[in-house]
Specification:
The complex is a heterodimer of chains A (544) and B (545). Chain A is mainly alpha-helical and 544 residues long. Helix content of chain A is 72%, strand content 3%. Chain A has one domain (4-540). In chain A, strands 1-2 form a two-stranded antiparallel ribbon. The longest helix of chain A is centred in the middle third of the chain and has 38 residues, at 182-219. The two termini of chain A are 39 Å apart. Chain B has 545 residues and is an all-alpha fold. Chain B has a domain at 330-539. Chain B has 22 helices and five strands. Chain B has a three-stranded antiparallel sheet, with no helix packed on it. The mean pLDDT of chain B is 86. The chains are: A mainly alpha (544), B mainly alpha (545). Chains A and B meet through β1, α4, α5, α6 and α7 of A and α17, α18, α19, α20 and α22 of B.
Chain lengths: 544, 545
């Protein structure tokens, strides 16, 4: 039994404990040590996650590198891990983004300058421990997210899916924009509570469904939470869920994932959380933690409840299309840069969920790629926006103008992020968005057509944002703006490089993902609809 | 013991009643605790004042740990599981649930005594260290006599023997195999608790008010319990739980049942209902919960912690025994009512907690909500239900003790600062204490990897397996409401700015520190590696019958 997967989970977890335990101190040297230790741990995690992705054989077994440890026998819970292509890719994305986020947030957790009322006094306990706390929390989130991507036990997944809320909550509530005063502290704690309550409610509903699934399975002799075991038993009819039970359980699971993802109309926590958190935390929310939601839809909703997934797919598609358009429209109207990015993300999540529930292979591999590409492009966009905001001390779009004259590199990278967001061909998001739209169109042409308007709106909000902030006359306060520093370039460079690389040559990614997607699709007893040429059109209506 | 006295007195009149056979070895946990309680009274009488505190603390700790060792030895000898005995003329059961709950109660009592023994938090009075209890309980609050007692440095070290009596009663309560023994045990543990509630050093009036309320309502509840016992005796002709079950199931017919079946059904159902009222009062279930917030708030905080955890363990133990041993045949009659009570308890506890402004009242309402969660497990009436309730009680009691122990640390010049607004920014000044309290709150909220989650999962799973899916749904929704107010406190502690002149966190002695440390340890171990304890609870879940 290989311990590669557990090592990938344990390293960041141990790193979180280590970072938190490092000697406290308000001196610059102490803080720098902390940061390098955390960064080092995340780099080791990246190497491990990359090894996992390389060792994964796309043509091999469905789940590979499996490990299993006894945990709570009374409830049939084993701590079992294993990867499929989707999990391997998303864990790798997480491992790539965490060091980038750390580097981008290098000074976010430093004690505030002396100005009164802006933050903790560097001499208090909190002031001295702040840096350790911030980086330890990031590593804790990383560990929990990676476990969620690797978990092959429904209960283990649930536990870490829920538990990651706690470090995330402290990241949002405890470390916000330096810009605001006491008012922003209130806003921030509101955002943190809203985030936690929404997700906790989703999680508790899922808990009820998890218990329900276990009880039904136990009645039929499957006293286990083992995902491969349960899915195969459901697939070949050894484990029977009545229609109502399956629908109710599906909704219970789906509700939790839809809150996390987030799907319209359960999205309202996201703009608050992303607006008030630091840019780095916002990236963790939208590019890392939220991906667990969409990933879980693919793995758990489709795998465990194939019939219910088919039953509810049209309704979910309608919601996701509403989300695409609603998110994009609200993004156009935003005055606050970070909230604009948040609404754009809601629109993108609509695309991902649409791809998952179109139940076609293009749709689902598109959705998986979309998760990766959205993670990379939004991270680039958001982090550059964060650098911009930290320079001017304001999140309002109206406070900027003409940045490209004073900070051309910053403006240039921001432009690439914007173009990636609007899915310019040649950049990575284009491939996935195209696949999702094609995959949806082959089965639900009307929904595919409506969703296409989302692309038009994306061009509107992304380019308008660029135009208002970067072009035009140089505004007061932007005049002295410095360009990107070396550290900031190191943050943006890998993201931009990957966005371009995967836009031109997505094959390595699709090769890794496609077999897993097809396996997922076959669980739902679903095949791609026949191509719509005239001969097949008569039989095309019969979609098995 | 009580049964012994009754029978011994009866033995004087008629020679035909044989002397009762008492299994001293198997009753040793209770005997040790009661013996220590009596010895504690003698200590009060004969040991010089300055030595009393330490004598009492050591006596109590040694006795409790000794009794716990006795429980472990009994379990290791195979008592409880697989051996099941009825002791002392069938009035006390020695079975798995009894031993498990006795072990929990003894551990809880050890931790509680540690918090009682704390003397570093209060400022010294009369040149001597002071604890959380009144200098002289009988003195009028605020009067000259009280001031004199404080100046003289008096302390109420009677709290230790009182607690030991209460612990003894609690040990007997879940083990009692007939209704009369159960009633006696109820009184033995309730009366000392009424007194203990009145003994707070600060806010004497509030404390005395709490005691009077608790006493009056508790006396009502006891009367209900006794009335129910009488009715059931009228129905079955016996107070033994097993006999009652036999009569209900028709295996044995006794006088009243033979006379008229219709009349006896009325006796049976009324008796059951009235008995249940008495017990529901003790566990603090809605609609018999209204004493909880006042009493929890007024009582000295170490006593509140003890009461909130140990009373609940003992009362739920008796509850389980009654409904699993005596009345399983009436499941169809009592289950719908208990459904209603459980739903009301969860919802009312969670919703009312949202509006609370005082930490102790908040924990009181949270304990009501938790009683509702435990009831969902009780209602399952299967082996899983029994073992999950046992586990939940273990998990819950240590979180509760730890949380109240933390409350004793947050103080201002007027004593404990229990108003929530004064907890603002605590996490900024004392991150460790705030983090520990946050851990307890997260466990109350049932966040995974804490004991609260494992317990909640166990009872909900048992309830779902027992066909009570709607209860699980209500439970999950009220958990979400409950999470709101736990999180509100965490927000207050970590994300609000501290008030100038707010409370400080006192540095406790090793006693309270140990108590809190044990709470943290149990919370994490039961959350992360619960298998051993789940096995233990599952092994213990077979009643003597």
């Amino acid at each position: 039994m290989s311990v590669l997967l557990s090592a990938t989970c344990v390293v960041p977890a141990a790193g979180a404990v280590l970072t938190a335990a490092l000697p406290a101190g308000s001196t610059e040297a102490r803080r720098t040590t902390t940061k390098y230790v955390a960064l080092g741990v995340s780099a080791v995690t990246l190497v491990l996650a990359a090894v996992v992705a390389l060792r994964f054989d796309p043509h091999g077994a469905r789940y590979q590198l499996t490990e299993s440890y006894s945990w709570i026998r009374s409830f049939g819970i084993t701590f079992s891990l294993g990867v499929d292509g989707i999990g391997a890719v998303l864990a790798l994305l997480t491992a790539v983004l965490v060091p980038v986020v750390m580097l981008a947030s290098w000074h976010d957790a430093d004690p505030a300058p002396a100005a009164p009322g802006t933050g903790p006094d560097p001499d208090t306990f909190e002031g001295r421990r702040r840096t350790q706390g911030f980086f330890a929390l990031i590593l804790a989130v990383e560990a929990m997210v990676v476990v969620s991507f690797y978990a092959l036990d429904v209960f283990v997944f649930y536990v870490f899916f829920e538990a990651m809320l706690i470090p995330m909550y402290f990241l949002i509530g405890g470390f916000g924009d330096r810009a605001g005063g006491p008012e922003s502290a209130r806003q921030r704690s509101y955002a943190a509570v809203k985030f936690l309550l929404y997700n906790l409610l989703g999680g508790l509903v899922m808990l009820a469904a998890v218990i329900g699934l276990y009880v039904i399975a136990q009645d039929q002799g499957f006293g286990t939470f083992d995902l491969p075991g349960l899915t195969s038993a459901i697939a070949d009819g050894r484990l029977r869920l009545s229609g109502t039970a399956e629908n109710v359980l599906f909704l219970g699971f789906f509700f939790a994932f839809a809150v996390k993802a987030p799907l319209w109309p359960l999205h309202t926590w996201l703009p608050n959380a992303m607006g008030e958190a630091t840019a780095g935390t916002a990236v963790l929310i939208t590019a890392v933690v939220d991906k667990v939601g969409t990933f879980a839809m693919l793995r758990f909703c489709l795998g465990l409840f194939p019939d219910a997934s088919k039953t509810f797919a049209p309704a979910i598609l309608v919601l996701s299309v509403i989300g695409i358009l609603y998110g994009a429209l609200l993004a156009v109207g935003q005055k606050d840069i970070k909230r604009l990015v948040a609404y754009a993300s809601i629109s993108h999540f609509g695309f991902i969920i649409m791809g998952v529930f179109a139940l076609t292979s293009q749709g689902q591999s598109g959705a998986t790629l979309y998760m990766v590409n959205h993670g990379l492009s939004t991270a680039a966009w958001m982090l550059v926006a964060g650098f911009l905001i930290s320079r001017r001390g304001s999140r309002l779009i109206a406070d900027y103008g003409g940045v490209q004259k004073t900070a051309p590199v910053l403006a240039g990278t921001f432009l690439i992020g914007s173009l990636a967001t609007l899915s310019l061909p040649g950049l990575a998001p284009f491939v996935s968005e195209f696949l999702v739209l094609v995959g949806t169109f082959t089965r639900y042409p009307a929904i595919g057509i409506v969703a296409t308007f989302g692309i038009v709106l994306a061009a509107l909000y992304a380019l308008l944002l660029y135009q208002r902030t970067m072009t035009g006359p140089v505004k007061e306060g932007v005049r002295e703006m410095p360009d990107l520093r070396a550290r900031e370039l190191a943050v943006v460079a890998p993201l931009v490089a990957l966005t371009i690389l995967l836009g031109v040559y997505p094959k390595p990614l699709t090769d890794l993902v496609n077999p897993s997607v097809n396996a997922t699709l076959s669980q739902v007893h679903e095949t791609d609809p026949a191509p719509a040429h005239p001969v097949a059109a008569t039989s095309g209506g019969e979609q098995k | 013991m009580s049964a012994t006295a009754v029978l011994a007195a009866a033995g004087g009149n008629t020679a035909s009643i044989p002397a009762p056979h008492i299994e001293y070895g198997q009753l040793s946990p209770m005997l040790v605790v009661f013996g220590a309680a009596v010895a504690g009274v003698l200590v009060e009488a004969f040991v010089p004042r300055r030595l009393r505190h330490w004598t009492q603390v050591s006596l109590a700790l040694v006795a409790l740990i000794g009794a716990f060792v006795a429980v472990v030895v009994l379990a290791a000898q195979g008592h409880g599981s697989p051996r099941i005995d009825l002791l002392a003329m069938d009035s006390v059961a020695l079975d798995g649930p009894a031993l498990f709950l006795q072990g929990v109660i003894l551990l809880v009592a050890v931790v509680a005594v540690l918090t009682y023994a704390e003397r570093r938090l209060e400022p010294r009075a009369g040149g001597l260290p002071a604890d959380a209890f009144a200098a002289q309980a009988a003195a009028t609050p605020g009067g000259e006599q009280e001031r004199a007692a404080v100046r003289a440095g008096f302390t109420t070290s009677e709290v230790f023997p009182l607690t030991m009596f209460a612990v003894g009663g609690m040990l007997l309560f879940p083990a009692a195999n007939d209704l009369l023994t159960m009633f006696v045990a109820l009184e033995v543990f309730s009366l000392p608790l009424y007194l203990l509630c009145a003994l707070a050093r600060r806010r004497r009036l509030l404390s005395q008010e709490a005691a009077v309320k608790y006493f009056l309502l508790g006396a009502f509840a006891s009367a209900f319990f006794l009335f129910g016992t009488a009715l059931l005796y009228g129905y079955a002709g016996s107070v033994k739980l097993g006999d009652i079950a036999d009569v209900i199931s028709g295996k044995a017919m006794t006088t009243a049942a033979q006379l008229s079946t219709t009349q006896s059904d009325a006796l049976l159902l009324t008796g059951l209902a009235v008995l249940a009222v008495g017990l529901l009062f003790k566990v603090g279930a809605v609609p018999f919960h209204s004493w909880t917030p006042d009493v929890y708030q007024g009582a000295p905080t170490p006593v509140t912690g003890f009461m909130a955890s140990a009373t609940k363990v003992a009362a739920f133990g008796a509850f389980l025994r009654l409904f699993y041993v005596a009345f399983p045949g009436l499941r169809l009659d009592w289950r719908p009512v208990m459904w209603g009570v459980a739903i009301l308890t969860m919802v009312v506890g969670a919703v009312l907690a949202v509006t609370q402004q005082d930490v102790k009242r908040l924990l009181a309402y949270s304990s009501i909500a938790h009683a509702g969660f435990i009831l969902t497990g009780v209602i399952a009436v299967n082996k899983q239900g029994l073992s999950s309730v046992l586990f939940y009680l273990l998990a819950y009691s240590f979180v509760t003790l730890g949380a109240f122990a933390v409350v004793t640390l947050v103080r201002d010049s007027k004593g404990e600062a229990t108003h929530l607004s004064s907890w603002a920014g605590l996490g900024r000044r004392s991150p460790l204490v705030a983090a520990v309290f946050a851990l307890f709150l997260l466990a109350f909220a049932g966040i995974p990897l804490t004991s609260g989650f494992t317990g909640k999962f166990a009872v909900f799973q048992a309830a779902a397996a027992g066909g009570a899916t709607p209860l699980v749904v209500v439970g999950v929704l009220s958990s979400a409401v409950a999470a709101f107010f736990y999180i509100r406190v965490i927000v207050l502690m970590f994300f609000s700015d501290p008030k100038p002149g707010g409370p400080t966190v006192a540095i406790p002695s090793a006693f309270t520190a140990t108590a809190i440390g044990l709470g943290v340890l149990v919370t994490l171990v039961l959350g992360v590696l619960p298998q051993y304890f789940l096995d233990l609870a599952s092994k213990a879940s077979l009643f003597a019958y």
